[in-house]
Fold these 2 entries.
Entry 1:
Amino acid sequence: MFILAFESSCDETSAAVVEEVDGELFVRSNIVASQIPVHRLYGGVVPEIASRAHVEVISRITREALDGAEITLSDVGLIAVTDHPGLIGALLVAVNFAKGLASANGIPLVGVDHIRGHIAAAYLAGAGEVPKPPFIALALSGGHTSIYHVKTYTDWETVGSTRDDAIGEAFDKIGRLIGLEYPAGAAFDKLASEGFRQATGTDAPTLAEYEASEAGRDPAMKLPSPALPGETLDFSFSGLKTAAINLLHHLEQTGETLPRALFAARYTALCVGAVAKKLGMAIDRYPDLPVTVAGGVAANSHLRRELSLLAKRRKIKLFIPPLPFCGDNAAMIAAQGYREYLAGNLRDSSLNASALDD
Ligand code: KG4
Ligand code: ZN
């Protein structure tokens, strides 16, 4: 069966065709039209501009996705679309487009939770073995920092989450203050690599090696951990963000130059260390379950390295999607859409978008 999927929850419009063969999912096309250059002018996503930009490209990229997969609409057996959470005006573009296509062509339709979609990126074949529930899932994006106990393909429990800002937001906001363009995640990652190298004299050190280095212990760059203390699996990134802002202001007022790379390394070490710590506690709570990591921040090279080490140490299977499937894309929506379809969660033209989480 061919699944045609759409994603327009934020600043990327995407259409993809995924083919299901005996329960395995193969990406046949995955077109992503990014609006980032437009929003960059404003230092963040402008919702009204996002909606308009989705409208402008959705027909064209649908054609590209079908052509890329060498199929026509009559070959499509299922249409899947992100219906929540996200920017309401942006979500509505793909939801209405998908509803129109489904009803005009008599194709079954499913609505997909964006975060479940991110996690389902791990079900896409091509990178070898794929995870099967039950497993532990980490969703790390511009809007989410959550840990889930995924019981079945459609039944999940949130076991930890941020109480304020998301990890991606924490990189974007502080990145902007140190002169990185929106969204700052990827540039922050690079700058931190340079900082880790300066601190330890080696490429890609472990967090333990960094923390043992002189720069890793420098009290002038002391910042709080976003891992909340105690048994909770929750995070809080606002304290780290405020402390980082205060540190930057202090340096500015005293006329000192910010060691940008070392600062990026310290900030990254705290974010990655907090995720590794809470993931370790989740593994204690659900021993032997595999782990998946998803969302834009799953592209972070330092996070990937540290979580791989953790998984090896704890003898846990770890699945992190290849980079093109970490950020927003429609192939991941097709992957979860297939599972919603199997569970009988079909929708009709009453399907509506919602800005909110489940
Ligand atoms: O999942 P995503 O594409 O969109 C949302 O659903 O939010 O995530 C976007 C977030 C942005 O905050 C971006 O800065 C961050 O992912 N990001 C990264 C990296 N690449 C993207 N954060 C850290 N390191 C990266 N390499
Ligand atoms: Zn996303």
Note: DSSP finds twelve helices and ten strands in the chain.
Entry 2:
Amino acid sequence: MHQRPNWIEVKDDGEWDFNWCDVGWLRENFDHAYMEEHVRINHFRNHYELTRKNLMVKNLKRFQKNLEKDMGRTEASKCDFFPSTYAMPSEYHLFVEEFNRNPGSTWIMKPVAKSQGKGIFLFRKLKDIIDWKKDRSRSEEQKDAAHLDSYVVQRYIENPYLINGRKFDLRVYVLVTSYVPLKVWLYRDGFARFSSSRFSLSTIDDKYMHLTNVSVQKTAPDYDPEKGCKWQMQQLRRYLTAKYGREVVETLFGDMDNIIIRSLQSVQKVIINDKHCFELYGYDILLDHNLKPWLIEVNASPSHAPSSQEDYEMKYGLLEDTLNVVDMEGRLTGQEKRVGGFDLMWNDGPVYTEDLNLQTFGSLSFTANTHLGCVNDREKNLRQLLKPFPLQKKI
Ligand code: ADP
């Protein structure tokens, strides 16, 4: 922000036009803040409808049920991208029924509002969680009902796609500038986060093997800060294309687009749409060995802490382009389909690439305007797109 001409940092009680706040600030202040037309803030008021693990699944299940009612089973099956999940302890009995139908399967227990792998454990026996449940209900008797559903139990994906024997998940950045109408931008860069130990189902207690969070992997005894545990999305896309060919990879990336759009649609009617708000989400997606992507969670405050110089540059570009799309300076026309590393993927409907020719259009095979893991020549694009900063305008 300091690098943008004419942006001035204000002190705590100063008047501001743009606020990059944390969700705690939002909770305490949003409802009391009067905001002028041009003011922007980096979260939607009830962002947690998508970013809290239990609410995300609740909204997805409801959305899927409505789709089935209105459009049939085939359409609803396009939402089959989240592992079976139950809120704990309120859906414990439903969970036990499913658990008993799938003897021997592995489950993962996760606190709904924590991050960085904190409080997560895997289990295969009901006995393992019965004591846990007793302890929790005892301690929660004193608390109010809002705290009850504070965990989810989720089917563990036992067949993750492995590279060099290691599990990884993907971090994808998605910028929403409006929910009504839904306007969504997908960033070209992202990364895969690898675990440091070779994957195996023979032990379920090793977090370095099963949890791919960088914050977990960084504490592994053999973690090498030089090598890190990341691949850029471009590297992954190239690797998969060399191995399986372009068509397979396009299907996979198309399936990821589908996850992004449907998950956002599932909360479209619930999120309080406010023209002052935008949100840069960090999607966590896991691939299984059939190259099917699964939605693990959506983060409202994805980490912007760099783990290497390359990571720093990527995140710097991401934040800079977020500000370019939000456009406090008024340099855009509003018709852009691309701004730096962001491609407009949804604008009240799917967005297609420019070079769509009539023949392919006729056969309904037009190409989505998404380029995740493709070349990110953002600076070149920005040079062509943006007029230089107006010199004297005060922000
Ligand atoms: P947190 O918010 O604490 O990061 P996540 O839901 O992202 O919690 O889970 C942390 C990690 O655990 C993920 O990055 C992934 O590696 C692993 N994980 C989470 N859920 C599953 C699942 N259902 N199947 C397989 N691995 C999972």
Note: Residues 84-138+148-156 form a domain with the Dna Ligase; domain 1 fold (CATH 3.30.1490).
